[in-house]
């Protein structure tokens, strides 16, 4: 009878979980965070205090006045009160310890506390807590007992809670101190528990954390072999005989294999059980068809199911060779990639599931099939989305080793913590089919060649100890602190050689090192065409990763521009106050396309023709552009004040000829030559009306791009990315806000303050624009437009129903949009 009841409970639990999952995803592509009876999402009902809180780890500490928050949470993106003797705007301050490195955001210390009770059933099991990422220097207590310190802000970590828990029905208190101080990063990090947290409640005989490792050693269209390594821990004082059963579920939910093993577990021990399965006619994972499987791991004892986990994986093969470059499932594949940092623009560093998913969506829509997680492990949420969407990943571990890049960065912890952090990254991430290369470092500035080589060797060996299915690389600048010869020595350790900004050396180095396989781990936006051609004509150049795919906070003005009368910029390449973002991305911090993204559309063949118009600059001035910057051009023909002046028009195209017309009159026809690459330039006297570029092939029109001069600003237009979303608080609707004239033509030169009102079962998560120098709050119900547009992000509150977003501005007709939360 007991066995029947236990099995019935398991079946009901699975049914409820499937029902909840379907309910959370209704009508959207959004995938809610995984939460099972074993691994429970632990994000709600936290208390937060920004600042130092003496003895806040104590059980009897009075936290009644602390603020309630749900996770993920980033306090650095929140507004700070005015700071004495410092300029402050919203979350920005000249008192920021990281100054321009982290975008003038404030960091400091913060505390979190969570009160929770466990049932009698839970108290009979083993309980642990998993943090996917806390930035940084966290210390965790349970009921006043310190569990440990974790310096790295990007790697996941977990602690056992069981022996410190209170009896059934009594209050348990989890306390987390976060110390994000000093000048510790070259980019915006955010502060706090900015990723998901899970409470694991499992039997004393259980699959260990990240204990399921899936590989596919042989893959073809007709058959694939699947290898499983399952780590099981027996925390009991006596041996136990168990069965380990694995069921492999296809992408359409059909069971395609089942494997079972019997094992005698010694008391207080951990063991790994290997199993193998063959799958016929598998659905292969690739960037074009990201089919996912899952393995359901069950532990049975005395005919009772005592533990169960589910692990996603993909069936695909990777082959790297100097002759063929990268083959995915036997097919030659180029990585059209971009480097990204971990922040989600105006939301800060919080890893809301839809935020992670949406930035990948806009990148894939722009032609990207790969990202490099520079320069740290990303959230599990982002990697899950890469798996679902078919985006290749270079998963990177470190930006520094022993030598610092800024005074308080991770170099202070590296030698003590690198093994633990690299292990955490590898164990958590190695089942993701999206990951194709591991990277152990970025532009590491070590001065001692022998130590540098020995450390690189140790890192590679550790990676291979944990996963032998992917190559290892390091992103290296050959002109860095170490000399070129030392660079070549270190390159010999890696199967794939990562080059930062060294495209001129690819073919030269290949002659000297014929076995080299090269990937451009960082490249300049202006070199997109050249890098694409290098990859096309050389199979051993497997792709490039532009710096960057999307704008990020911090490293202010990496893509700096200035209009100068003479000389050079006062502050050099990097911008000072009020610059706060890098401005080198193909997309801005709101996810809107910038001019270089349209250029890349033509380079990658997504478009046959795009047209950009350069801003007028007086003859006595010039435009200063640093190495990552793009010319001051925009996709419109509305330039008030430029009447009669000559504007440069760039047409990016693969057409043989382009004819330019203004108000129906032909201006010029140009023929594309090899020397032009893909750019034809025209000088056009500005006059209001319609500018049209016509692409010609053998004298026939094949594509047309036109811009019309806008009229006066008349109304607001709202365009949500989705009008139907999940009621789950990790879902979001991104609403594009534009100012248009009476004919619906966008008014790009209009800068207006937009006021928002939100009614119903949601709130405004953030509002802002992509302007890299306009510091403002992202958490007020208003923002200004930049190039005629801005962004509002709506977040559900967990209830089903409608959310109404209203936008108003002085002198304009307002707009309203409704979003359904289901």
Helix proportion range: 10-25%
**Into which percentage range does the β-strand content fall?**
35-45%
For the largest beta-sheet, the strand count, sense and barrel status come to: 8 strands, parallel, barrel
N-to-C terminal Cα separation, in Å? 39 Å
**Global mean pLDDT:** 93
Q: How many strand elements? A: 49
Q: Report strand order across the widest sheet.
A: 23-24-25-26-27-28-29-30
- Total helices: the number is 10
**Uncertain spans:** 1-28
CATH topology tier name of the largest domain: TIM Barrel
Class by helix and strand content?
A: mainly beta
CATH class of the largest domain reads: Alpha Beta
Label this structure with key terms:
822 residues, mainly beta, Jelly Rolls, Immunoglobulin-like, TIM Barrel, 4 domains, eight-stranded parallel β-barrel, six-stranded antiparallel β-sheet
How are the secondary structure elements laid out?
Layout: H1 2-24, E1 39-41, E2 46-50, E3 67-69, E4 88-89, E5 92-93, E6 108-116, H2 120-123, E7 126-131, E8 138-142, E9 145-150, E10 157-160, E11 172-180, E12 197-202, E13 205-219, E14 223-234, E15 240-249, E16 255-265, E17 269-280, E18 293-301, E19 304-313, E20 318-321, E21 325-328, E22 331-332, E23 335-340, H3 353-365, E24 370-373, H4 380-389, E25 392-396, H5 411-429, E26 435-442, H6 449-466, E27 472-476, H7 484-491, E28 497-500, H8 506-512, E29 518-523, H9 528-537, E30 541-546, E31 561-564, H10 595-603, E32 609-614, E33 622-625, E34 633-634, E35 646-653, E36 657-662, E37 665-671, E38 679-685, E39 690-697, E40 700-708, E41 715-720, E42 724-725, E43 733-740, E44 753-760, E45 762-768, E46 782-784, E47 789-796, E48 801-808, E49 815-821
């Amino acid at each position: 009878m007991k066995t029947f009841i236990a099995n019935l409970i398991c079946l009901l639990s699975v049914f409820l979980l499937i029902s909840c999952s379907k309910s959370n995803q209704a009508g959207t592509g959004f995938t809610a965070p995984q939460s099972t009876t074993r691994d429970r999402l632990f994000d709600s009902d936290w208390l937060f205090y920004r600042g130092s809180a003496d003895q806040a780890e104590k059980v009897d500490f009075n936290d009644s006045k602390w603020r309630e928050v749900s996770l993920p949470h980033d306090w650095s993106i929140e507004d700070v009160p005015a700071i004495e003797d410092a300029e402050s705007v919203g979350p920005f301050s000249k008192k920021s310890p990281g100054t321009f490195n982290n975008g003038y955001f404030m960091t400091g210390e913060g505390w979190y506390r969570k009160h929770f009770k466990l049932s009698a059933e839970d108290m009979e099991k083993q309980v642990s807590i998993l943090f996917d990422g806390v930035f940084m220097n966290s210390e965790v207590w349970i009921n006043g007992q310190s569990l440990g310190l974790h310096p790295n802000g990007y790697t996941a970590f977990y602690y056992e809670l069981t022996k410190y828990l209170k009896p059934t029905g009594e209050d348990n208190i989890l306390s987390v101190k976060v110390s994000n101080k000093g000048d510790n990063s070259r980019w915006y990090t955010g502060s706090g528990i900015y990723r998901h947290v899970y409470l694991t409640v499992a039997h004393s005989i259980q699959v260990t954390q990240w204990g399921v490792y899936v590989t596919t050693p042989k893959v073809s269209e007709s058959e694939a072999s699947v290898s499983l390594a399952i780590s099981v821990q027996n925390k009991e004082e006596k041996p136990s005989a168990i069965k380990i059963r694995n069921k492999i579920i296809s992408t359409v939910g059909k069971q395609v294999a089942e494997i079972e093993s019997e094992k005698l577990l010694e008391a207080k021990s951990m063991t790994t059980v290997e199993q193998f399965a063959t799958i016929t006619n598998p659905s292969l994972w690739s960037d074009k068809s990201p089919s996912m499987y899952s393995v359901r791991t069950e532990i049975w004892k005395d005919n009772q199911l005592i533990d169960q986990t589910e692990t996603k994986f993909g069936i695909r093969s990777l082959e790297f060779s100097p002759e063929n470059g990268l083959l995915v499932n036997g097919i030659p594949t180029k990585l059209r990639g971009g480097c990204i940092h971990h922040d989600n623009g105006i939301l800060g560093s919080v890893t809301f599931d839809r935020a992670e998913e949406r930035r990948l969506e806009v990148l894939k829509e722009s032609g990207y099939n790969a990202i490099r997680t520079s320069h740290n492990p990303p959230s599990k949420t982002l990697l899950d989305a890469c798996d679902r969407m078919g985006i290749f990943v270079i998963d990177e571990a470190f930006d520094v080793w022993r030598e610092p890049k800024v005074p308080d960065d991770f170099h202070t912890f590296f030698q003590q913590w690198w093994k633990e952090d690299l292990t955490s990254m590898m164990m958590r991430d190695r089942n993701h089919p999206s990951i194709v290369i591991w990277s152990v470092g970025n532009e590491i500035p070590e001065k001692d060649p022998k130590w540098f080589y020995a450390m690189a060797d140790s890192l590679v060996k550790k990676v291979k100890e944990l996963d032998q299915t992917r190559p290892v690389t390091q992103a290296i600048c050959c002109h860095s602190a170490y000399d070129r010869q030392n660079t070549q020595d270190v390159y010999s350790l890696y199967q794939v050689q990562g080059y930062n900004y060294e495209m001129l050396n690819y073919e030269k180095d290949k002659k000297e090192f014929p076995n080299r396989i090269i990937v451009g781990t960082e490249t300049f936006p202006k070199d997109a065409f050249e890098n694409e051609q290098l990859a096309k004509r050389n199979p051993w150049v497997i792709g490039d990763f532009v710096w960057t795919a999307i704008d990020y906070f911090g490293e202010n003005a990496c893509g700096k521009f200035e209009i100068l009368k003479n000389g050079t910029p006062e502050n050099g390449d990097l911008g000072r106050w009020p610059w706060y973002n890098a401005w080198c991305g193909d997309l801005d911090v709101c996810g809107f396309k910038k001019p270089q993204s349209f250029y890349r559309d033509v380079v990658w063949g997504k478009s046959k023709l795009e047209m950009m118009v350069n801003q007028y600059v007086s003859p006595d001035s010039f435009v200063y552009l640093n190495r990552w910057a793009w010319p001051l051009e925009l996709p419109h023909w509305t330039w008030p004040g430029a009447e009669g002046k000559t504007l440069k028009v760039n047409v990016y195209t693969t057409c043989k000829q382009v004819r330019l017309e203004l108000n129906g009159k032909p201006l010029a026809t140009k023929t594309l030559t090899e020397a032009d690459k893909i750019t034809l330039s025209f000088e056009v006297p500005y006059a209001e009306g319609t500018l049209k570029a016509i692409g010609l092939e053998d004298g026939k029109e094949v594509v047309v791009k036109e811009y019309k001069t806008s009229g006066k600003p008349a109304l607001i237009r709202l365009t949500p990315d989705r009008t139907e979303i999940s009621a789950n608080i990790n879902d979001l609707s991104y609403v594009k806000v534009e100012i248009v004239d009476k004919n619906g033509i966008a008014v790009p030169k209009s800068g207006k303050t937009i006021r928002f009102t939100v009614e119903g079962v949601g709130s405004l998560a953030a509002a802002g624009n992509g302007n890299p120098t306009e510091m403002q709050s992202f958490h007020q119900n208003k923002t200004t437009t930049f190039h005629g547009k801005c962004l509002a992000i709506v977040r559900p509150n967990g209830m089903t129903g409608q959310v109404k977003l209203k936008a108003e501005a002085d002198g304009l007709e307002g707009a309203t949009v409704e979003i359904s939360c289901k």
